[in-house]
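Structure first, sequence second, as always.
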């Protein structure tokens, strides 16, 4: 299949890209993460994703919109529900990109992280697949967690310390 892979960061892409290629899928990466704050962190993750894609010869489409105001407008009143906004906005953009480019399916590296709400991601991915007449390619990439970390360290990739949004940064560093 021709699969568009939404990439939240280079580190989380390592295992899914490897697995999809082993399964003989054609993979194109898609970076869209308007939720990452502050802007310097956003740039580090984007630059690292570009570096990784170059090293592994992964075609990469980038939407580098930085939408701080939009993000805050959607989550400021209910920050405890911010993850759902992030999943929905990023997966919707990935589905639209997959549909526009003629991909057969889309998926996301969010399925690699042990810290994400896996079931919510899968449910919304499947809803979008039906809406856009695509396949949401599901695989539980969490089993490759340790392998991805090992390889990212070997590659010397920038490794972020929090999920991405300003609230996750606060939660990480105020403990």
């Amino acid at each position: 299949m021709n699969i568009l892979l939404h990439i939240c960061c280079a580190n989380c892409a390592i295992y899914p890209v490897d697995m999809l290629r082993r399964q003989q899928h054609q993979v194109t990466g898609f970076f869209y993460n308007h939720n990452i704050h502050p802007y310097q962190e956003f740039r580090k993750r984007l630059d690292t994703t570009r570096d990784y894609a170059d090293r592994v010869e992964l075609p990469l489409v980038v939407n580098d919109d930085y939408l701080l105001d939009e993000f805050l407008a959607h989550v400021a009143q209910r920050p405890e529900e911010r993850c759902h906004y992030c999943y929905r906005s990023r997966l919707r953009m990935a589905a639209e990109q997959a549909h526009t480019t003629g991909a057969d399916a889309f998926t996301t590296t969010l399925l690699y992280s042990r810290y994400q709400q896996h079931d919510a991601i899968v449910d919304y991915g499947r809803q979008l697949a039906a809406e856009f007449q695509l396949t949401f390619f599901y695989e539980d990439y969490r089993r490759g967690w340790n392998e991805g970390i090992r390889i990212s360290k070997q590659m010397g990739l920038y490794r972020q310390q929090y999920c991405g949004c300003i609230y996750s940064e606060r939660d990480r560093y105020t403990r």
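Margin note: The mean pLDDT is 95.
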